[in-house]
Amino acid sequence: xxxxxxxxxxxxxxxxxxxxxxxxxxxxxxxxxxxxxxxxxxxxxxxxxxxxxxxxxxxxxxxxxxxxxxxxxxxxxxxxxxxxxxxxxxxxxxxxxxxxxxxxxxxxxxxxxxxxxxxxxxxxxxxxxxxxxxxxxxxxxxxxxxxxxxxxxxxxxxxxxxxxxxxxxxxxxxxxxxxxxxxxxxxxxxxxxxxxxxxxxxxxxxxxxxxxxxxxxxxxxxxxxxxxxxxxxxxxxxxxxxxxxxxxxxxxxxxxxxxxxxxxxxxxxxxxxxxxxxxxxxxxxxxxxxxxxxxxxxxxxxxxxxxxxxxxxxxxxxxxxxxxxxxxxxxxxxxxxxxxxxxxxxxxxxxxxxxxxx
Length: 358
Description:
26% strand; six-stranded antiparallel β-barrel; 6 helices; alpha+beta; four-stranded antiparallel β-sheet
């Protein structure tokens, strides 16, 4: 173990004393007890928006591609789940899609066939109608000849029978046309069903493809991996967490201020953050949130002094541009003090002038 010299001990002690004196001086200069109007302060910890990277479906973790502390970009693949079952389902859906396409082709062929039957039946109606017209004219001549005695009664009866038969044949042919048209409508309904099955298989394949894509877990935003919850090979339920991601572009300190003070805090107000671990730095920030209701109150609120105990939550958010310049130095959980300017005309004391790491 290295031995600390007396000079190093003195310098270390001197640094500690300077830090304590600096903190005491800051408190004296801008404390919120009425000695410095226009400012308010509160204790808090550095926080950041956290995002849980979780599975959409139950399954086994195949691979985790990042470790704790790694910086990641939005859209970067962080982990993969096993997709053997989903791949089998996709292959099945693809086969059903091909089968449905063949069904559409077969239904279209049936429609064409039935429509040709309709055309043939209509042609047959025309033929039978022509035969019926000829039989009607022959019957008219036979009736005229029979009245004049130029034709026998037998010939007249035969012509009447032929006309009646031709008329019945026309009616039968027209019935065949109606039946053929009904058959066309039936196969068209089958064609509609076949096309619907194609659309259903397309939707199924798209859904399974989306499930396969969701099995590749990607980062929703830039940030840093805070910790791993699961390991490769573990079986997780739907919604099971794998990783915890910290969004380093949304870092803030939450403090609580009493009701008389919070009424003077406006969104966007200037703020300063001083961390216990680095009192030599003063980090600029702005108020991004002021609670509309008290976060905690006494059991009874009857007197003015008790109403002053109402505490409201306030967030002082650090600029994302500043954070991007010092991503490696951003750490959550660090305690400190946030100072908020209540009076826009007030001037920050020199001790709270902005000082950030180089």
